Amino acid sequence: MSNDLLETRKARARAWFESLRDDICAAFETVEAGLPPAAPFADRTAGRFVRTPWSRSDHSGADGGGGVMSILHGRVFEKVGVHVSTVFGEFAPEFRKEIPGADADPRFWASGISLIGHPQNPHVPAVHMNTRFVVTTKNWFGGGSDLTPVLDRRRTQEDADSIAFHQAMEAACGGHNAVADYGRYKKWCDEYFYLPHRKESRGIGGIFYDHHDSGDFDADLAFTQEVGRAFLKIYPKLVRSNFATPWTLQDREEQLVRRGRYVEFNLLYDRGTTFGLKTGGNVDSILSSMPPEVKWP
Length: 297
Prior knowledge:
Elements: H1 3-33, E1 50-57, E2 63-72, E3 77-90, E4 107-119, E5 126-135, E6 139-148, H2 160-174, H3 182-192, E7 194-195, E8 200-201, E9 205-212, H4 217-242, H5 249-268, H6 271-278, H7 283-286
Antiparallel strand pairs: 1-2, 2-3, 3-4, 4-5, 5-6, 6-9, 7-8
Helix pairs in contact: 1-4, 2-4
């Protein structure tokens, strides 16, 4: 592959992630503004995103790119982060064998979007989505999206929200059958977002994929774009269908305890957390996935 073609692909991927970030932030701010007057917390001011740029150095001290952290604290979303980054440089020696293609040449480039949402209302599921394009001596896409209802009575794949979310993720794969296997990526998600020490799933799943390279960059990018569009279409709908539902103190307590599972997974098992910290990423951005309030009774 020529260097010019590779640079063009990098630019296309980066532009998509930044555009998706803008669309998601606008959609979430619209949800914040649309909370019905009788809903819990409707007397509060609608939240707006605050964007904070950051930069990094690679392990040698050279310029390593950076990104923009976007955080909203509001009346619908207790905390939501929508972050984009484009980082590059060389992997540290102790990390090279863990990344395909990096053992032969430690240089890398990676761009992506990462999102985590923790709603105020316990009836609204928490959500995660990220997609990325990584370049070493190999090139691939990765990412996915998963849903985490926090009330036990709704933590089932037969729940209406769960069904709608899975249908959206299946549709994202459906237009790209040559490169996207929904059954495989759903199973991968179920297996990945699992807490072995508790013998339970983090949520109700979705799709997860990594090292995705069919040999057709355009098809792989189109699939990754569909994952983002599917998320943008379904999740605000799920929020609106639940954000005015009254909740009890018992519901809130259950939400806070369930959030503890989120913290445990992200600190113990999440590859994105490990990748970000080991490559000198922005710690505040990486750990923004942590909920603002949580309990371990």
